[in-house]
Structures are given as structure tokens and as C-alpha cells.
Amino acid sequence: MALRIHNTLTRTIEEVAPRKPGVVTLYTCGPTVYRSAHIGNLRSYLMADWLRRALQHQGFQVRHVKNITDVGHMRQEMLERGEDKVIAAAIAEGKTPQEIAQSYTGAFFRDEARLNILPAHVHPRATEHIPEMLAIIQELVRRGHAYERSGNWYFSVASFPSYGRLSGNLQASLQGGARGEVDPLKQDPRDFTLWKAAEPGRSLKWPSPWGDGFPGWHIECSAMSMKYLGPQIDIHTGGVDNIFPHHEGEIAQSEGATGVPFVRYWVHGQHLLADGVKMAKSVGNAYTLGDLEQRGFDPLSFRYLCLTARFNARLNFTFSALRAAEQALARLRHRVWEWSLDGWEASPSSSPGPGTYGQAFWQRVEDNLDLPGALSTLWAVVRSELPAAAKLSLLLEFDQVLGLGLAETPAAFRVPPPVAAAMEGRRVLRLQTRYGEADALRDQAHHQGYRLEDTRSGTQARPLSPLERRRDRWSAVSSSREVPSLLGEPDAVEFSLVVVCDYLQDVQRCLDSALRSAGPHSLEMVAVDDGSTDETAAWLAALARQDRRVRVVHADHPLGEAAARNIGLKQSLGRIIVMLDPSAEVMGDLFIPVARHLQDATVGVVGPFGLYTHDLREFREVSHTGDVDAMQSYCFAFRRALLAQVGLLPESFRYYRNLDLYASFLFRDRGYRILADPSLPVRRHEHRLWLDLSDEERKRLSRDNFRRFLRRWGQRRDLLVTLPVG
Ligand code: AMP
Ligand code: ZN
Questions:
Q1: Gap from CA of 260 to ligand 2 centroid (Å)
Q2: Number of other CB atoms surrounding residue 405 within 10 Å
Q3: Sign of the C-alpha dihedral, residues 187, 192, 194, 195?
Q4: Pairing state of beta strands 23-28 and 61-66?
């Protein structure tokens, strides 16, 4: 049997038959190293890794090249995408682009190693291959595929008739070669840059026959694949976003220069989404592997998660899915560990295991890398009646492709001497039926991070899985949907304070001040820990243990402002809800005046910082007591019963800005007044969510939220109150 894989070029599933029998040449478009790879990028590299492992298992010798796009294109990328924060910051810290590239290259190699991705045989760096790029450009010039304008060289798409064949996207190709760039020098908007003359003052530049300059985006991959794998390669991989224009450009350049077909099989991995949308740093959903580790996940849980979807299907990343993957992997390791206790030697090759399982597994793998199918065969083996030794050897054989590191499990489960002593102690104590002392030893081991289990072969010890460790601390939710609503329950206290917590110092000031000022009022505080990774979560958990008025809901990742507030609202049991921002500090008795204002049934919302507007575009703060159009979120109080009418907050507001406008209009729409009372004792401090962002990010996020607001309320001037002039 041979591996069959979907080829983007032919749009069919084809048997992989390399040009040279026995050897497969594989090129993978590698990382751009001016930032950490996010787990979406890493999914693409996992795909290439599975492909390579599958080919190796079939007996092919695979020669794998993965380039590093280093300083060469950094500035161009920055200019085109306007995303130069990391570099700007680093340069401000006195680092050179080379140092940046070097440190992110190192980070990338570490990420790959943690994911058990086999290192490519060659990791060529773009900056070290400028002469090779120039040689191809010169050949393109010689063959009439390139032309010059003002010192820049362009590829002439008209000279290469099959341009567009890979992407099949002639529409897109008509929009021009490079990302959003409009270059008036081009003869044809489809043409793309091969070489650009350095502008005065540019530091990253290289000499060429046409003076100093720097290469275009696609040429590096043509040059490096040709140098290390020859003019014709078997398989080229990348993410789907690489198909156009990058790979289309590579084909045109390589074939234009050599006159022979460049790549036999183009294999493209589909995107990883997060919370249902494309990963982007600005949305706050572009996680790095380090982020997952910081949250206590084993990187291999992510590898397992990626096995649960076909490489050419989108995969939606959520923390609950990651947790499920982690549990499955922990179960798998646990079984391997149990089986290995009966004195097992790692010898996958001697697998005598019933052939049917092995066949079923490899059939799935060979069928366009159906790894979800292969995984279910693996679980069928786990559940089967086969002897432990047979299961083990089958699993180890499968793991040569899956790469979950199962062979290392017994070693990873090896315990340090004190735990081994506790293990032996418990075994003996149990034999003597001294169960109390035996349990004390088990608890002691638990504190050391190990679980003692009593098996048929005596008491055994293994490390706690990350999940078991986390359960010791607190449980966490992955979305507001998981949090039950108490809105139908009768009032249990007079006030609920709802605070979405981020930035420990602010949280401490806000919560302490509010609890201090509560005095004799019957009050509860619902603190929502919106996926913090600093000490906030632990501080809140400790506070809740000390102060029975405080309840904490932990989210396992940032859910966004509206979702986090909704969790607090749903969990509130107070007759009056006071939403506070962590940047607010309560300076006196807030509760008596708030309750007094809200006795008036026509008043929906009360707070100290009111806004008015006459056009729904510009909002101004008022300094007198009276009716306003909106209340700012620093302190926003209302009767809980009204939530049944106005509903919860729209969770598309991940960023806090302008959510308070939207919320205010929900109350106005139901006919309620919004009352400002600037004498309410609340002080505002710097808003850290705001300070932490760059100007550009603030503008964009605020603008996006304002659009959301306008889409819903832009036509509702009828809801505005008319203020006395002045
Ligand atoms: P870059 O470092 O931006 O050049 O991207 C490296 C690789 O990651 C490329 O092959 C991209 O196609 C791929 N990639 C980018 N975003 C995603 C995503 N959300 N999911 C999967 N792959 C991605
Ligand atoms: Zn590339």
C-alpha cells in the first residue's frame, strides 16, 4: 500500500510516488521569526511532521528542508502589515533585527521539540542565501521573465501562462502579487517583486548587480528548495494561506528559471481557529505554546488535539477541547504505564499483534492522513482483549507516526526516591492492614505531585497529570455558557458586586475598598477571574476562603469583557447589582445612595459617571446629577430583576470599550432612565486595560466596538434625553 494524499495542484487525492525510488524530498515553508509562532502555525508544522513520519514508516528515506524566514523580509512584512510592535519594542530595547531573529528562531526550535516534531535535516536561513536568490533572478532576467523599473525587478506574470494554476484563483491573482501592496511601477498588477532597491537609510540590504537592495517575499523559497533539494521536489507543504500568492509565486519563479516542473505534490494544512474565529494577536486568541504551558498544559496535549481533525479540515481550538485531549492523552499514558509494569522492554519492531488492528491503523494513515480514524483504531486496541504485551507493541508501532512519545512514558513516570519509599511503605502497611498510616503516605505523595495506586502488582506511583494537579486548585470554565444562570432565583442579599478581575494590584484595591465600605449591608461579591495568568487567580481564591461574601468564577482563558460580565450577572443573587471596574475604588458608602436612587421605578441605571450625546457619535461626561444617555462602566448599578427585560450583554464585545454604551441603551430601549450622580463615592484610577495597549490597537479595538454599538443603536436618536444647553 502506498500513502495517498490530497494534492492542491490537481485537486485530487494521489498516491505519493517520488521521482527517485525510495527517497522523498520534502520542503516546508517555515516560520517568520520576528514573533513567537502561534499554535495555528504549529499545526501546519505538525501536519508536515505526520506526513514525514508516515512516509518514513513506509520505508522511504525523507529529506526534509524547512526554511527560516529571518531578517530579510522583516521590514517589508512590517511595512505591509503595519505590525511592527515586537520589533519596534526590541529595537527600543537596543536589540538588532538579527538578535530578534535569533531569539525567535531558538524559540521556534524549542516549540517544535516540545511537540515532538522531528527536526528538518536542513533549516536554511533566508539571509544566508541572497547569492542563490540573485542567481535565480538573473536566470529569470535571461529567460525574459523579469523586468526592471527604477532599480526594482519584477516577475512578469504574463510571461508565465500557467500562473494561477495552483490556487485556481484568477480573481485573486488579478488583485496584485503581494499583500495589499499597490506598486505603480508594475506593468501588470499581478506582477510581483523579485528584488527591491534599498531606499536611502535602509540598514538591511545586500549588494547585487543592480546596487544595494533586498529580496521579494517568494524568492527565498525558490532559492533554498532548489539549493538543498534540486530543481524538482516531491512534496511542498504550508498552510492554506500560503497557496496564494506565495506558492503561486514560487512555482512561477522556479519553473521560469529551470523550465522543469517544480513540485509534484502540494499539501496544504487548513487553519486552526480559536473560539470559532481566525487566530489573531489583536483578538487575543493567538496562543503560543508557552501560553498553553503557562496554563499548565502539556504541549503534547495540543499534538493530540490536532490528531482529532484531518489536516485539510478546519479545527476550532478551545480550552475545553484541549482539556479533553489532555484527558485522553493522560488515559493513554496511564494504560501504557500499567501495561509496562509487567516488565516490558520497548521493542516495537517485534510486534506480533493481531494484524487486523495494525492493518486498519495503517490503512487510515495511508488514506490521506486520516489520523482521527487512526486514533480511533488505537483506542479500539486499548479496549480490545489482546494481551497487554501485544497492546503495547501495537501502540508503540502506531506512535512512530502519531509521535505522542508513548515510549517515554515509563521513564517519565519514574518516581524520585522519597516517593518510591512512600510507595513501598504503603505496600507494606496495607499488608499489615494499617490503612490509616497507609493513606497518610498516599496523601504525602500527593503533595509531592505523585499518585500512589494499588494495583495487582502492589502499590505503584506515577506523576499526577496536569489535570489532577489543577483540580487541586480550582475548577475553571471555558465559556459563559457553562455557568448556570441564577437569574430566576429569588434575591438572597441586598447587593451583588460584580467585578471582572485582571491586573492584581487594581483588583486588590477595588475589591478591598468595596468590601471595606460595605459596612452592615447584606452584600455578596461575584469576582470573575477572566483567565488571568498572574497571581490574580490565587489571590481571589484565597480571598474567597477568608471572606464568605466573596465568590469567584475562574475562566481558563480570557473570555472577553462581555462574556466575563455575563458570568458575574448570571451568578448574582443580590436585589441590586453593582458592576465595578477594577480601576474603580469605592471611597465611602456607595450602597445607601445607590439603593435610594433605584427606589424610583423609572430609573434603570445609576452611577457616578454619566455621558450624554446629541448625535450618537460623540459622548461627553456630565458633572451634574440628572438624566443622561449612558453610564460608564466604572460603576454601573441596576435592579437585578430588570435583567429579565434587558437581557445579558452581547459577547462579541471582547474588549471593554463602548460596551457600557451598548448596555446603557439596552435599558433605555426598555424605557428606563439612566441617572448620573457624580457625588457617589467612587474614584477612578488609570485603566490598565487601556494603558497596556498601543495607540493603534486601542484605536482599532475601540473602533470595532463602536461599530457594533452603532449597528444596533445608530438609528435610535429617539432614545436620547435632551439636556439643558451648557
Ligand atoms: P508565518 O510564520 O506567518 O510565515 O506562518 C508559518 C506557517 O503557519 C505558514 O505555513 C502559514 O500558512 C501557517 N499558518 C498561519 N496561520 C495559521 C493558522 N491559524 N492555522 C494553521 N496554520 C497557520
Ligand atoms: Zn515559502
A1: 19
A2: 17
A3: positive
A4: parallel
Minimal-distance CA residue to ligand 1 atom 8: 41
The interaxial angle of helices 39-57 and 355-366, nearest 10 deg, is 130
DSSP labels for 326-373? HHHHHHHHHHHHHHHTTT----GGG----HHHHHHHHHHHHBT--HHH
CB of 237 within 6 A of ligand 1: the answer is no
Of 179, 191, 172, nearest in space to 80 by CA: 179
Asked if residue 685 has its Cβ within 6 Å of ligand 1, the reply is no
**Does 43 sit in the ligand 1 pocket, CB within 6 Å?**
yes
| Interval between CA 45 and ligand 2 midpoint (Å) | 13
Strands (E), 502-596: 523-530, 550-555, 574-580, 584-586
Backbone angles phi, psi at 200, to 5 degrees: -60, 140
DSSP state of 632: -
Q: For each successive 10 residues of the chain (726 residues), what is the average pLDDT?
A: 93 96 97 90 97 97 95 49 49 76 94 97 95 97 96 94 86 47 79 89 86 90 97 97 93 97 97 83 82 89 97 92 90 88 55 75 97 96 91 95 92 83 91 91 88 83 77 77 92 96 91 93 95 85 91 90 96 97 95 96 97 92 94 97 96 92 97 97 85 80 92 93 63
Report the sign of the C-alpha dihedral through residues 48, 51, 54, 60, in that order.
negative
**531 burial level (CB within 10 Å; 0-12, 13-18, 19+):** buried
Residue nearest to atom 23 of ligand 1 (CA): 41
- Mutate which of 41, 279, 311, 315 for ligand 1? The one with the most ligand atoms within 8 Å of its CB, which is 41
Please tell me the distance from the alpha carbon of residue 413 to that of residue 602, in angstroms, as a whole number: 65
Ligand 1 lined by 40 (C-beta under 6 Å): yes
Contact criterion met (CB below 8 Å) for 502 and 570: no
Name residues whose C-beta falls within 8 Å of residue 595's C-beta, 6 or more positions apart in sequence.
494, 495, 576
Domains parsed from the chain with CATH numbers: 24-269 (3.40.50.620), 289-412 (no CATH), 417-471 (no CATH), 480-719 (3.90.550.10)
Look up cell 457617589; give the residue: 680
CA-angle at 535, arms to 532 and 540, nearest 5°: 80
- Specify the residue for cell string 523550465: 259
The answer to whether the beta carbons of residues 480 and 275 sit under 8 Å apart is: no
User: 703: which 3 cell numbers?
Assistant: 473602533
What does the pLDDT read at residue 310?
Answer: 97
Residue with CA closest to ligand 1 atom 14: 41
Contact 631, 660 (CB under 8 A): yes
Q: Which of 357, 309, 307 is nearest to 328 (CA)?
A: 307
**197-234 b/e with 16+ CB inside 10 Å = b?**
bbeeeeebbbebebeebbbbbbbbbbbbbbbbbeebbb
C-alpha distance from residue 661 to each of 440, 515, 581, 726 (Å)? 57, 27, 15, 22
Give the span between the Cα atoms of 113 and 122, in whole angstroms.
Answer: 15
Please state whether beta strands 272-274 and 550-555 pair in parallel, antiparallel, or not at all (unpaired): unpaired
**Residue 155: phi, psi to the nearest 5?**
-85, 130
Residue 479 CA to residue 28 CA, distance in Å, equals 35
Find cell 485537486 and name the residue.
11
Measured from the Cβ of residue 324, the count of other Cβ atoms closer than 10 Å reads 15
Distance (angstroms) between ligand 1 centre and the Cα of 44 equals 6
Which residues fall inside 5 Å of ion ligand 2, going by CB?
29, 221
* 48 CA distance to ligand 2 middle (Å): 14
Neighbours of 288 (CB within 10 A): 18
